[in-house]
Amino acid sequence: MEDSRETKQKLIESAKVEFMEKGYMKASLRTICKNAGVTTGAMYFFFNDKNDLFAGVVGGPLTELRTVIESHMLAEIKEMDHYTPGQQYDMQEDMKAATDVVKTLFKYKDEYELLITRSQGSSFENIIDDMADMLNSHYRDMFWTMKGYKSAKQMTKEDKFIVHWMAHDQVDIFVHLLTHCKNEKEALKQLKGMFSYIIGGWFSVINNT
Amino acid sequence: MEDSRETKQKLIESAKVEFMEKGYMKASLRTICKNAGVTTGAMYFFFNDKNDLFAGVVGGPLTELRTVIESHMLAEIKEMDHYTPGQQYDMQEDMKAATDVVKTLFKYKDEYELLITRSQGSSFENIIDDMADMLNSHYRDMFWTMKGYKSAKQMTKEDKFIVHWMAHDQVDIFVHLLTHCKNEKEALKQLKGMFSYIIGGWFSVINNT
Amino acid sequence: MEDSRETKQKLIESAKVEFMEKGYMKASLRTICKNAGVTTGAMYFFFNDKNDLFAGVVGGPLTELRTVIESHMLAEIKEMDHYTPGQQYDMQEDMKAATDVVKTLFKYKDEYELLITRSQGSSFENIIDDMADMLNSHYRDMFWTMKGYKSAKQMTKEDKFIVHWMAHDQVDIFVHLLTHCKNEKEALKQLKGMFSYIIGGWFSVINNT
Amino acid sequence: MEDSRETKQKLIESAKVEFMEKGYMKASLRTICKNAGVTTGAMYFFFNDKNDLFAGVVGGPLTELRTVIESHMLAEIKEMDHYTPGQQYDMQEDMKAATDVVKTLFKYKDEYELLITRSQGSSFENIIDDMADMLNSHYRDMFWTMKGYKSAKQMTKEDKFIVHWMAHDQVDIFVHLLTHCKNEKEALKQLKGMFSYIIGGWFSVINNT
DNA sequence: CATGAATGAGGTTTCATTCAT
DNA sequence: GATGAATGAAACCTCATTCAT
Lengths: 209, 209, 209, 209
What we know:
4 copies of one chain form a homotetramer.
Chain A: H1 2-26, H2 29-36, H3 40-46, H4 50-80, H5 91-107, H6 109-117, H7 127-147, H8 157-180, H9 184-208
Chain B binds a DNA duplex through helix 1 and helix 3.
């Protein structure tokens, strides 16, 4: 059992290297197995196919990230219940959430970069859109509440569009931090500026439309 | 001569279809040629290789887009010369530029989507970053001017980072409009909201840091 | 394991036939594999590429030949130590060496003919020159010793040129025997005459210059 | 007419360059035509096929060489009529012939090197053997005369074999001079040594068998 | 004389995957 | 758990040659 664990682990590490270097599509299973010191057949014992191997590399970190995000979204939803229109926005809570996300991102930097920039061709190729969609419904609720609507039904098509964009942009900010900062520390330093930007945008949208 | 034009055109159209369906990497030259009713050899008479064929599809529109953007950047640079700090920002000019860009984008919607979402593996795979870089230096100048700095040299590392992000985001907005609106008219309708967002963000950054 | 050996062997034999018929360059891997009753993919399991397959055919025999030659060169070097100028040349030893070389050549006649006459385009295309170079330094030592020089440094440019030629010619003699005699027996019969020729030439050069 | 001459000449020169660089087989007609500034079709007006183009490059020089050799062979044949066994060999005449050959070789050095080292795949690939065969019958006559035989019929199989070899070697000497000397002058300087070698060999064979 | 388009067959190589052992 | 052989399809690309114009 120990041995098999080790083999699987070696495969995952070798796969990570190859996927990062060549991207999902151009990566060669042969090369991965050779570098892991394992035969192709062995790989097919542990993984169903190329995509499953990719999932073996990025699956864990992805789940962890989802957990972090979801837990914060739940927290915000609770807070939203006490919101009264016109109330001063409290950045504090959101910053804490974002900080947690950034920390998670840099905990498995390689894997997240893989997901974001090198997953084309795999089942994860739409991961960015998926994350944005995940945030979308949450942002919708924030939007109509802050806008003073009675319910989501009052939202216009334009409202929905801009909210969808903002969900996307939130994700893009994290992507940008991940791909343009060399470590967590630096990313956290930039986070405040990014937040200032996104919140400025958010309120500009709330007040102007 | 008539015939040859036609053959080349058929190849380009067949290539466009295949590239859009499968993406650059997975697209098959064989399939492209077969659907164009032409042998592979013929294709290699007109194009050097797969990448050149891709360029044959997207090259023209890309050049046109670059021209539009550059002409507007020159216009803004001139305007910047008369800028005095504290002066009210005039969205008018920028909206006109953005409107032109959106119009161009929807003029060759297929080709730009190809470039943005399906060019991985080709020499155009970094097109988004290239466009962002193109805007970056321009945005730097706007930034330090509006910030009241004497020159670009006063910009901190954080300033540069956030400006780089905003250049990226500007590009992403256009990408979002292109990929989420079904036609020019709809995109132009959403443009104002997007602009409100980005300008809100921009001023928030200018004033807070 | 038995099976795989067999497959590889069949490939090598099929390759030999094709290479002999068409030469390295014009030989088709498709044809080789088809005649071996194997898919191209299988071939690439055993060999890295076309050149490696060619090496699979000629590599063994080539190594064997090199071993034979080198062992004899060592023997001659030892003998040379006791040489005194003017001493009668003893053909005996050299004939024995040459006999061994001829025997080796006819042991794998096909493979050596392949190497010599059909390897253009492969990594073995300069094999004749390589062999000549191998003999060259050895012949230089023989030359200056027999000439009565104190060291190799006394050799003129002309000396070096003619020695280089004689090294080449030695190789050519073996090539000629291989390509113009149908079997070992016949080649050995001609060997004496060839030797008479080369030794006549050798001494003529030693005495006349 | 002037123009067409020029076009043909440009093609020949471009072909020479390409053939020298890549060898007959790997040379590309496309490349040749492109570098000549001419279309493929035009080439096929002047030449029947790839081989004919190669002939266009080397044909002239080859004819010239054949003429030189044949004229000298005729001269030697006449001289041979007055030969009496035991008579001192007069190197003079042969040296003059060889000198002429060397001069011719260096007159079109490129073309002859092409023929000798880069013609594999063309109809000239056996040129060396052809030249040797050309000399062979001539050498046979010299051999039996000097040996004191009454006619060629007295020659043994071994006699014929060694004569064939010497004809080959004669050719190889010229090849060696051509490929190892950088110009005519240097080649002529080495010629005497080479001659000493070959004549030493020749007489050694005549006297020993 | 020369163009330029097109053919069609062929080239070597790579790939993810399977399966008997 | 793992091996190693084998599949079979497809990949991109190059070639000498032809022919209507």
